[in-house]
Design brief:
Layout: H1 2-6, H2 12-15, H3 28-31, H4 33-49, E1 56-61, H5 67-78, E2 87-93, H6 97-110, E3 117-120, E4 133-139, E5 148-153, E6 156-159, E7 164-165, E8 177-178, H7 194-197, H8 205-211, E9 218-221, H9 223-236, E10 242-251, E11 260-263, E12 266-268, E13 278-280, E14 283-284, H10 285-292, E15 296-303, H11 304-310, H12 313-323, H13 327-341, H14 346-349, E16 350-357
Parallel strand pairs: 1-2, 1-4, 2-3, 4-10, 10-14
Antiparallel strand pairs: 5-6, 5-9, 7-8, 10-16, 11-12, 11-13, 15-16
Helix pairs in contact: 4-5, 5-6, 9-10, 12-13
């Protein structure tokens, strides 16, 4: 997955336009500015709750075209001075040189062209800060991190593989062909049970969840996600405080058959056309929360619809509708906002998890009773 998505010259994210109508998928920030504005309001509430530190840095994992970052920064700038986080630096976890240029241009357009910006190959390279409050954004980032698929068999957990059969008659020039689908276990695929081999150890909460699964169950496990989540928790739980949001599709549970490919807004076989296909899997938020627990507190996840409506989606939408110049524009704004909270789509499929320094309680809107 990592090679197919991030190879410098052949990777999916590094060689093409992947976002928007002209790409393969559309994200919430691309649909409506309201999404970024409401996330910004949540960050402000946490910054204020932690004493309004005088220096604030923004750390975003996988900023894409910089749309979400720009909406958040623009919202900060529009707030009155006492409620405006003073942005002292920006750190972006990005590997694509093409997207780095797009992100830089977006920062200039937003009025933050002079703010110190650093790009990092991975979140582990983002330095710990002694005096900057950390605003951390991870929107549709963890779903693209590599997974392993395991099946519980009569002989214990075994990794599900998809072997390739090579044509040894090279004179025919035939390409390698798949000998099995991604859901078919290879006969020789004997691997250690995931509770013993995944981060957290055999006594972890993750191991306990997996131990209860019946024979025939499958799970998708992402050790890379575990490491990235721990690194993000270190940043948020640092000495200067912080607040993070992880927004992705998934739930507080493990998935077994969610790995898929996206191409031209359609779900496709993830093993076809490597480098031309977005590869993704649902996020296990319980797994992320366990990995973060040493350094930070987590809250949620909440469905995206509940998170956005609790933070004032309807009043903000009403304001945008009043300011729309035409009936057609009003319909576009209303349709986009409804798409963000539609219970049969983004509103329920996407979840939001908050990350705060250890011990934080009553974090709105995660503290609201159902």
């Amino acid at each position: 997955m990592t090679l197919c998505l991030n190879h410098p010259t052949l990777g999916y994210y590094t060689t093409r336009t992947v976002f928007g109508k002209e790409g393969d998928f559309v994200t919430s920030p691309e649909i409506s500015q309201v999404f970024g504005e409401l996330l910004a309001i949540w960050y402000v509430t946490q910054w204020l709750a932690q004493g309004s530190p005088k220096r604030v840095r923004v750390v975003e994992l996988g900023p894409g075209r910089g749309t979400l970052l720009a909406d958040i920064l623009r919202t900060f700038r529009a707030l009155p001075q006492p409620s405006r986080p003073p942005i002292s630096s920006i750190h972006l976890v990005e590997q694509s040189d093409q997207l780095k240029r797009v992100q830089k241009a977006r920062l200039v357009e937003t009025g933050f062209g002079e703010t110190p910006v650093e790009w990092h190959a991975d979140v582990a390279a983002v330095p710990q800060s002694e005096d900057e409050f950390t605003i951390l954004i991870a929107h549709e980032f963890f779903d693209a991190l590599p997974i392993h698929i395991f099946e519980n068999t009569q002989k214990g957990w075994r990794e599900v593989l998809s072997p390739l059969t090579l044509n040894v008659d090279t004179t025919l020039g035939a390409p390698p062909r798949s000998a099995s689908s991604p859901s078919s276990p290879a006969p020789s695929a004997a691997r250690a049970a995931p509770p013993a081999s995944t981060p957290g150890g055999a006594g972890s909460l993750t191991a306990q969840r997996f131990a209860r699964l019946p024979i025939g169950s499958r799970i998708e496990v992402s050790p890379s996600s575990w490491e990235v989540a721990r690194d993000t928790a270190r940043l948020v739980g640092g000495p200067a405080g912080g607040a993070g949001l992880v927004v992705d599709y998934g739930d507080a549970k493990a998935f077994g058959r969610s790995w898929r490919g996206f191409r031209k807004h359609q779900v496709v076989d993830p093993l076809t056309e490597p480098g031309h296909t977005d590869l993704t899997a649902n996020v296990d938020f319980s797994y992320l929360a366990e990995s973060m627990s040493e350094f930070a507190s987590t809250h949620g996840p909440l469905p995206q619809s509940r998170f956005l409506t609790s933070l004032g989606l309807q009043p903000r939408l009403a304001g945008l509708l009043r300011g729309a110049s035409t009936d057609e524009r009003r319909k576009e704004i209303e349709s986009a906002a409804k798409r963000l909270v539609y219970h049969g789509g983004m509103g329920s499929q996407y979840k939001v998890m908050a990350v705060t320094p250890k011990g934080a309680k009553d974090v709105f809107p995660f503290d609201l009773v159902e």
